[in-house]
Specification:
It contains twelve helices and seven strands. By secondary structure, the protein is an alpha/beta fold.
Length: 283
């Protein structure tokens, strides 16, 4: 992300989630605020692009965006059932889960770059979306401040478990920064993290490599290039080394089986766009 400017990829993701509300039925992710937060002008422009939205690549990206949010929100339900009372949205962008949360007594922390967070607050105000009392904004410039510092200064309890949603972020990080975040979470027994990640090109087939090339080209053009790719098995092993004991990984086949089975419209994710993972620590 360019210094002093909001994340263009975060806006692109918000447009995809909004498009899912308009063009896909039934919805995998029922986000009642997705269209409001992008603004009336953008929503109307989106409605005029129904034909473009039905392109194979656009549908595949939209499916992945919807599935990963649905996955993270489902894992949050599991976290709450386990007694977790802190929810952290890392790299929140225009994510709306905090404003749709049905979970009473859940403290929510949205972490993002100050410029993107200021832009989001403008979007919330313009859309008339109320900020719940349970939500705390945590502006963090990772070049000047650590995640632990930002959260601890914002009322986060470092001695209590939390659930972390970390979507659309890891591909843009260095390996050191990514593993440092996992290391921070690993110090909070009983916590969990749901995230997506890009798979190393050497592990992809030709079609998957082509899909990855297309999405990587788009984000690079927005000034936010991919730089981190994983071997899923090695990533799981690295997380176990940090202390995570329960790890689930979903590739494109498993994502389609869970979220897009027997759809009449054929909506599904395509290989190369990423995989989902959730990792938990023992209490």
């Amino acid at each position: 992300m360019q210094e002093g400017k909001f994340s263009r990829t975060a806006y692109g993701v918000a447009l995809r989630r909004a498009a899912h509300q308009l063009f896909d039925h039934p919805k995998v992710l029922d986000d009642t605020l997705a269209l409001r937060i992008i603004g009336e002008k953008a929503a109307n422009e989106l409605r005029g692009k129904a034909g473009e939205a039905q392109g194979r690549f656009s549908r595949a990206i939209r499916a992945f965006m919807a599935a990963r949010s649905c996955y993270a929100e489902g894992q949050l339900v599991l976290a709450v059932s386990r007694g977790v009372k802190q929810y952290v949205v890392l790299g929140a962008g225009l994510d709306t889960s905090a404003y749709r949360s049905p979970h009473a007594n859940l403290k929510i922390f949205e972490v993002d770059h100050p410029a993107t967070q200021a832009w989001k607050r403008e979007r919330l105000h313009a859309a008339g979306i109320e900020i719940p009392e349970s939500l705390t904004f945590v502006p963090v410039n990772f070049e000047k401040q650590t995640l632990a510092e930002g959260l601890s200064q914002s009322g986060f309890d470092l001695n209590a478990p939390a659930f972390f949603s970390w979507l659309g972020v890891t591909p843009y990080l260095t390996r050191e920064a990514c593993m440092a975040t996992f290391g921070f979470i690993a110090k909070l027994p009983g916590s969990g993290v749901a995230f997506d990640f890009a798979v190393h090109r050497d592990l992809l087939n030709f079609k998957q490599k082509f899909a990855l090339h297309l999405i990587a080209k788009r984000v690079a053009a927005a000034g936010e290039p991919f730089q981190l790719f994983f071997d899923p098995e090695q990533l799981a092993a690295d997380l176990r080394q940090l202390g995570f004991t329960q790890i689930e990984t979903l590739d494109d086949v498993q994502i389609n089986a869970r979220y897009f089975k027997d759809r009449s419209d054929g909506l599904r994710v395509g290989g190369g766009l990423g995989q989902l993972m959730c990792a938990w620590l023992a209490s």
